[in-house]
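Quick start: what a row looks like.
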Amino acid sequence: MENYDEIKYQEAAKRVKKIKGFYTHLTVFIVVNTMIIIVNVQNLDEGESFFKFKTFSTALFWGIGLAAHGLSVFLPSLIMGKDWEEKKIKELMEKEKNNKWE
């Protein structure tokens, strides 16, 4: 049972690392894009519109990447459920145990 607890701990640690990576990515996204917006607003010519594609293109494409990152972190548990991972770990451990005895 100790091996099972160690495996569960390692799985949880991996999950936390993925979530932390996403939140770090999100924080950097917000900070950098806020700075880009501030610089763009300060450099506007008189009468020039702020709403141009070049102003938002970085945020748009980076946002698509950020959304993909978020989906890769959070979507598997939403689709498969939280118990799926635990069941799969038990299944693989049973297969490994049975293969050792054959």
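That is the whole record. The radius of gyration is 22 Å. The chain has one domain: 2-101.
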